[in-house]
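[step 3/7] inverse_fold.run input=structure_tokens len=278
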């Protein structure tokens, strides 16, 4: 029988731990504050921003919301980021992506101080991760590591395969698994004999961006499968990159969609806000 890894439960545990830490910090006169910037009114972005506000409120940290109109110029956005970088009472800055087409996303991410980059997207923090120095880590891959650890799944010495090579998930995921002493292979759209490689995995992390692409033919018996994807199917129901019904009977543990990796992303964002870039 396979284990369904409950991301809602584990993310709640993390938020409860952070709530206690924040209360202790406040008792010592230490406050944390996250500034969230949204440009435009993309419905999905609005949902994410609202969830981040709720999480801040739950754990007891201050949040500043900047909801800017679609026509906000790149210069105006960069000016706001500069002012937040300079504020001593702001510990974290997050610009909700995507930004409108007339704004250069790379410029925006570079403008955020690495010391306040709680998303872990700044090249300084990415570089720190790659050489094992302290810094902010991208929230979704950090959440996957917590899912594994808190579910009692050993990473050290295991054959780990990451399907996907994005800057936000695939690449940092590989580096974090390496940091935990996994043996890591990264696969992508140009990988030959893909199924042969994924079927070697003791731990398979799927972040390929294609609904239900991974079926039982990609998976070794008894593997652990982590599904990072999220899509809506033809019936408007959420699904992942993994065909859960096909794969689940063959694995030892698997994350569902929804309720697996998704809740962990915000939990780890809150962790970054509270812990700082230690």
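[step 3/7] decode complete -> sequence:
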């Amino acid at each position: 029988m396979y284990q369904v890894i409950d991301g809602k439960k584990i993310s709640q545990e993390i938020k409860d731990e952070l709530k206690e830490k924040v209360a202790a910090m406040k008792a010592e006169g230490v406050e944390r504050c996250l500034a969230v910037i949204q440009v435009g009114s993309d419905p999905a972005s609005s949902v994410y921003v609202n969830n981040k506000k709720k999480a801040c409120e739950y754990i007891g940290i201050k949040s500043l919301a900047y909801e800017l109109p679609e026509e906000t110029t790149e210069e105006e956005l960069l000016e706001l980021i500069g002012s937040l970088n300079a504020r001593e009472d702001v510990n974290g800055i997050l610009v909700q992506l995507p930004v409108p087409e007339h704004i250069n996303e790379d410029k925006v991410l570079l403008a955020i101080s690495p010391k306040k980059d709680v998303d872990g997207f700044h090249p300084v923090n990415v570089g720190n991760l790659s050489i094992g120095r302290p810094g902010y880590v991208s929230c979704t891959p950090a959440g996957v590591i917590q899912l594994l650890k808190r579910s009692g799944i050993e990473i050290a010495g295991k054959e780990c395969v990451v399907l996907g090579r994005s800057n936000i998930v695939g690449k940092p995921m590989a580096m974090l698994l390496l940091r935990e002493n996994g043996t890591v292979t990264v696969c992508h759209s140009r990988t030959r004999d893909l199924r042969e490689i994924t079927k070697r995995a003791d731990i398979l992390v799927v972040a390929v961006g294609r609904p239900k692409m991974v079926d039982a033919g990609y998976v070794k018996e008894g593997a652990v499968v982590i599904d990072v994807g999220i899509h809506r199917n033809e019936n408007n129901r959420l699904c992942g990159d993994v065909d859960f019904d096909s794969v689940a009977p063959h694995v030892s543990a698997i994350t569902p969609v929804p309720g697996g990796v998704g809740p962990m992303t915000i939990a780890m964002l809150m962790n970054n806000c509270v812990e700082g870039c230690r």
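[step 4/7] annotate
DSSP finds ten helices and eleven strands in the chain.
The chain has two domains: 29-113, 139-262.
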